[in-house]
């Protein structure tokens, strides 16, 4: 869809990336680190400054205690952290349970190691998790429960009750929980992010993944990390060092600065995005689409059935040429498109005038 957007000079509300430079202190810190000569290989586990900043961040926001020398590993984005964890923990014939819709990497990485992804669907309009369905998906081959909250593409946030249900299943079946929390700071309307590792009995079986990309609007930096018990983090590191080995020394130093920004700066990032979520949601509703409530993330999901459309895949393929806007069909985040044939994901992480222009273009529909 991004290629089609470029081809037709369309506004790209498909791929989720912001169009502003990110917090000035963070960008300045990257430039300063480069000029200080911090441009050579970092340790595979990550430079000490960012490991200490990640641990301090987990303590400040969630009360989680971590040892920066053994319980954190810095990766080339959350992507590498997630794929390294799956390669480390899952083998041929194993099963990974994931919430459906799922971020496309989850299925690709599972297939790569010969495992299968077992979807447990959350559905519009409220995207509630049926914990009994999750429990029923567990088999003797299940190795990992892969969570994503706040959730891309739906903007759902797992509640404490849902997390407690998942934790009970994981403990009962001795499963590892791999949790993708890259949108941990981008929640709206007073919603609260609860890391599942903070629930009783979960710290020892949870690998938590996050990234600087979404929080600081620097998706091209690809600085992510995994935190968790030393035995599991050692396994992630053991794989990751044969993938990228290490990456982004000056960017790691800059992200350390970002993670130490005061609380109100994190709140501002979410507040700005909430206003954009409202702009896009209201605008799409004005056009006659059904828009589901997004509690978090860069995205809102809309239903195009009220426009007389029947297939979001065909709709999104044609949209850049038709009106000059790109979006993503939610079908691509599903193992089976049944029930979501007319859902489309739009990114709201763009400048207000860009969102306004996109909505104006969509009027031609
Ligand atoms: C963007 C995204 C990622 C990838 O993060 P990177 O740090 O860019 O690798 C992983 N998971 C989800 C749900 C995402 O939206």
What does this structure look like?
Keywords: Aminotransferase, Pyridoxal phosphate, Transferase. With 365 residues, the chain is α/β, with parallel strands linked by helices. The protein contains 13 helices and 13 strands. The chain has helices at 2-7, 24-35, 48-62, 77-89, 104-112, 131-137, 160-172, 212-215, 230-243, 249-259, 263-286, 312-323, 352-362, and strands at 11-12, 72-76, 95-100, 116-121, 142-148, 176-180, 206-211, 223-227, 290-291, 299-303, 325-326, 328-329, 343-347. The strands form 3 sheets. A 7-stranded mixed β-sheet has the order 2-8-7-6-5-3-4, sandwiched between helices. It has a 4-stranded antiparallel β-sheet with strand order 9-10-13-12, with helices on one face. Helix 7 (160-172) links the parallel strand 5 and strand 6 (176-180). It is globular. The chain starts with a helix and ends with a helix. The mean pLDDT is 97. The structure holds pyridoxal-5'-phosphate. Pyridoxal-5'-phosphate binds next to helix 4 and helix 8.
Key descriptive features of the protein:
alpha/beta, seven-stranded mixed sheet, binds pyridoxal-5'-phosphate, 13 helices, 365 residues, PyrdxlP-dep_Trfase, four-stranded antiparallel sheet, transferase
